[in-house]
Amino acid sequence: MKRLIHLIIVLSGTIVTAQEKKDTTATKKINEIVLKKNKFQRKNDRFIYDVGASPVAKGTTVFSLLKETPLVSSMDDKTLRIAGKSNAVIYINGKKNQMDADALAAFLKSMPSESIQKIEIITMPGSEFQVESSDGIINIILKKITENGLNGSLRMSNNQGYYNNPGMGFSINYRKNKLGINSSFNSSENTKRQYYILENGSNIASNRSEGTVSIPNKDYGGYLNIDYALNDKSSIALSYNTWYNKNFTSVTNLFNTVNALNDTVWKTVYNRSINHENTQSYNNSVNLNYELKTDSLGSKLNLNAAYLNFSKKQNSLNTTSAADSNGNTGEDISQIIQQTPQIINSFSVTIDYFKKFKNDLTMSFGGNYSYTKTDNNTETSLYQLDTGVAVRNPNHFFYLENIYGGYLTVEKKVSDKISAKAGIRYELTQNKGNSYNAQDDNLKNLTRNYHNILPYVNLNYSINKDHNLSYSFSGRMKRPSFWEVNPVRTYLTETNYVQNNPFMKASAVYSQELNYMFKNSYFFIAGHKYYKDVILQIPLQGIIESNGSHVNVLRYIRTNFGNRQEFNFTIGFQKSFFKQYWNTNVSIGLQHNINDGRIDTDPLTGEKFPAYINSRKSNGITISTNNNIRLDQAKTWFASINYWYVGNYQIELGQLRPLGSLEIGLKKIWKDWTFAATVYDILNTNRAIIDDPQQNGNYNYVNIYNYPRQLNISISYNFGNKKIEKIRDFNNASDEIKNRTK
């Protein structure tokens, strides 16, 4: 149930920017660019936002600062997105910090913004980055200070929406000569409240479900990095990351209206489905890193070995009871009991070498290998209480994956105005799955091997000090997550459920982008993406006969759904006015989509349904603006006014109606203390409504309200020696695998 709701929320979120994998040593070596007057500019393959020149950087968090960054936005105060991209992957000094959305948001909200020197936005990552699909990268560059000592920060917050949600976090950094230690811990409570309406049907049968969802979450997590410089040329480091999520007594309460045409008479039946779910998950990883500098120009070798363990325990009880038209319940009719645990163990190694030459030529090459084993021992039991009929469906599914990869990247500064970068990545993927107790032989001994050659090209032309033009082309793959290939159903009701698909194959994405920047303030981005065998979750529905009546069945099936093209156009600017009392960035995006998908068969059962077709062409508009206003000359009082808007937009579940949000905040800085308050969605306009009428008469309607009007209050305190830095950051060899545990 939660997976379905999360999908719809994510789908509505992906389009606001038009819009947990790992990079290599080459990206960690980022040449310092001194920005004195221009806070925002284009350099080679990335946009650079000089945080040190921004008057609003002090006394806030990294997450809040990222939301103020041009081309970056957030719809839900949890996930960050880049204009024209499906996802924003976070790096710190070239190191991927891969957590789930809640953990990553807590981490970024606990990190003080004073530690940041600049933010790099890479809309088209090069071959050295091991990212998927159309992901963009936000690379956070920390300040480099060399003094020994101890410092840290403490932050407490309280969010008041439908429920009250407190949170806290602290971080410490210690450096003594060759030894560097940094650590953090975060905890939070986040109980989500949702109200939604789901309707689907045809001209002879229909379902309507309406009700509430309450999802209580408690999160605890942190990290520990120990870095030791063996000598002036080599270092060794050990990193440990952990996160624990506890979600007990999650409740979904739905009142269902079922209409069916019996001969010429319509019959209406009412019932109520209540689902109780308990979930807890653990994510632990350890990474060992060795780095060797091979010359004085900055060349170096980087070796990584990592182990990842992800474990989730989840069970649910869904009870359907008879009801009258007013929602009053009677006897229980049926029950669905589900056990859906998952265990993932992964081992990964990477080798990267970054070579610099004297003639402004840079070459990087490397390879990676990962072995991942997934164990899904799930079971679903359906009980018809009135007849005593019980159906038990065990599913013990093992999934093994081996990935071999290698890349070569060459970057050349041709002149003071022209630079070029080209690369190629090769990936070989070997998959093997086995559902030991499945009745369908097709689910046993699944084998799929495929290889991909992924090119990359970037050309940058600095016409003069006021004009910069660049072009990029990239090929990428998107693999399904480990949960999506597990052949299991997650039930909303007995006839309405989410169904995974082990037969999905990786999707290929080919992207190109043209960027123009004027006076380091105004920018224009035009992009095109072609998705082949795009991975989507499609509503497949039809009519079955049950007890002499027609019943409408709806299955949200994960599958490869044809091809898709996207054309993106974004214009915007980042400016300061009135001697930097007012800082603003504005972006306006237009997107044109061409969809070409069709499915009429359940890939697991082979059942035929009326074809679900999405061959629509659609246009959409997005508007985003962030404004920070300094209220006093001493730079201690600040106000913020932020707004985003999404017009009508076509996504895979249908037509998304307009939505938006207005946020207002106030911040006070007093010595090492910062006090902040923000009100979200003041106009109460952030509501996802999706319509999907089909030509064959079927229809699907989704209406979700997440109670987004909220007040957030926070207090933070920075202590200790402010001139401390972490010795270095390093890549984690299991970063890409972590992202697919979601």
From TrEMBL:
Q: Keyword Membrane on this protein?
A: yes
Annotated Outer membrane protein beta-barrel domain residues = 293-717
Q: Which SUPFAM superfamilies match?
A: Porins
InterPro entries linked to this entry:
Beta-barrel_TonB_sf, OMP_b-brl_3
A Pfam family name for this chain?
A: OMP_b-brl_3
Keyword Membrane included in the entry's annotation? yes
Cellular compartment(s): Cell outer membrane
Source species, domain of life:
Bacteria
Matching Gene3D superfamilies, A to Z? TonB-dependent receptor, beta-barrel domain
Q: Which UniProt keywords apply?
A: Cell outer membrane, Membrane
Question: Which PANTHER family does this chain map to?
Answer: PLUG DOMAIN-CONTAINING PROTEIN, TONB-DEPENDENT RECEPTOR-LIKE BETA-BARREL DOMAIN-CONTAINING PROTEIN
The protein's name in its UniProt record: Outer membrane beta-barrel family protein
**Species name:** Chryseobacterium pyrolae
